[in-house]
Amino acid sequence: MTDEQAPGLVDGADGAGGTVSGGSGDHAPTGPPASTTPEPGPAGSPAPSFPSVASAAGEPWRWGRVDDDGTVYVRTADGERAVGSWQAGDAQEGLAHFALRFDDLRTEVDLLVRRLTTGRGDARAALRSATSLRERLADAAVVGDVVGLAARLDAVVAAAERAEEAERAARAGARDDAVARKEALIAEAESLAEETTRWKHAGDRFSAMIEEWKAVKGIDRKTDDALWKRFSRARETFARRRGAHFAELDRARSAAKARKEELVVEAESLTDSTDWGPTAGRYKELMAEWKAAGRTSKDADDALWARFRGAQDTFFSRRSEAFSARDAEFEGNARAKEELLAEAARIDVSDVDAARAALRDVQERWDAIGKVPRERVRELSARLKEVEDRVRAAVDRRWQATDPETEARVAQFRARVEGFEAQAAKAHAAGDTRRAREAERQAAQWREWLAAAEQAAR
Fold first, then answer.
1. Out of 2-11, 306-315, 361-370, which region has the weakest mean confidence (pLDDT)?
2. Is 231 exposed, middle or buried (0-12, 13-18, 19+ CB in 10 A)?
3. pTM (2 d.p.)
């Protein structure tokens, strides 16, 4: 049994069984022309118009007939077309059977209309189904408004073609948007791969971009593969740069660790030094070298720094203790020198020899006392110098008073004064005024020099 046969139905006009008389139903008038009724369309698009088609089951004689030999005909725009043979009962039953088959086709077309108007179906699949139904309708074994159904199918095909074109355009637009999104991800990836040094941030961003990439759909396989190759190259470039950076960082950290270990060893070797100044200077240099050595891993750096700092603390604690003891000693020395200065201030310079002996004793004891706090050195030295200057001045005065050369010079100056005074008196007696004035001038000059020499000799 084929899909165009049923019990009691034989294709063609030669089937066996009872005879159905055409009667008045053999020439019943065709039904009214099909009307055109707009169906609701998808939201946001103009509603397509599909001709409505009446059901054939209620009045099948409007669309066909059964002749005396049982041949079943359907009326078309081109006239009648034989669709089968009915031999199992009366003509009305035959027509009803073929009308139900028409209504089945009509239902299939209605389903396609609903899919297109609601926008829930695949326009391409609807177009294939509508085209197939239209081809089948040309020789379908049905009785009904085949002209109206053909027109409705034409409208369905046209609407499906428009919907498919719209879907194709939408897919193309979505594809372009998807390509643009992935190209934007590629551009960001290439920028990060070539320029960034924020390795953690960039690594996290690449992970996020992978998820964004996966979420972008609607690109054909060939284009998507080409885009992925570009993105993957950028990610590999970033991975190589990051790997090279951290490899270099590891090398630098290893070198920094080795250098800091050397500095620690030297710092620890200086902890027992008592050469306070140079050793403190060397520790300062070691600190500068430590900073210039760079960083190693945190754990290693912390451990090495603890040793380095410990060595420094040990030395400077010892130095501080030594300086505290020294400062206490220097304070005592300062007090001793103050007492010595008080004694020196009482030296009697009237006896020059005794004063000089007392000063020498003070100076010897001063040197034996030793160092004083730095801030008191100038003050104490200045006070000792005052005593020394006072004794030295007394010595100078005695020397000048007993110096033979000084006495001879005074006598010589006095003789010159007396000589010039005698010449002036003689010139006055002779009435030589000019020679008298010259002699008086010379006598006055030598008199000044005599006064100065006598003052120096005192």
1. 2-11
2. buried
3. 0.42
User: Do strands 49-51 and 36-38 pair parallel, antiparallel, or not at all (unpaired)?
Assistant: antiparallel
Please state, in angstroms and as integers, the Cα–Cα distance from residue 380 to each residue in 329, 359, 365, 389, 390, following that order.
16, 15, 14, 14, 16
State pLDDT tens for residues 311-355: 999 999 999 988 888 889 899 999 998 998 998 888 888 888 888
Summarize pLDDT for 135-159 with one digit per residue, the tens: 888 889 999 998 989 999 999 898 8
Q: What are phi and psi of 31, to 5 degrees?
A: -75, 175
Residues 6 or more apart whose Cβ sits within 8 Å of residue 202 = 192, 196, 238, 242
Q: Report how many helices (DSSP H) and strands (DSSP E) the chain contains, helices first.
A: 11, 6
DSSP letter for 60, please: G
The residue among 226, 192, 227, 225 whose CA lies nearest residue 207 is 192
Half-sphere exposure of 188 (CA within 13 A, CB side): 16
- Mean pLDDT (the chain, rounded): 83
Residue pair 103/120 in contact by the 8 Å Cβ criterion? no
Element (H, E) at 359: helix 352-369
Give the three-state DSSP class for 141. coil
Closest to 237 measured CA to CA, from 179, 186, 201: 186
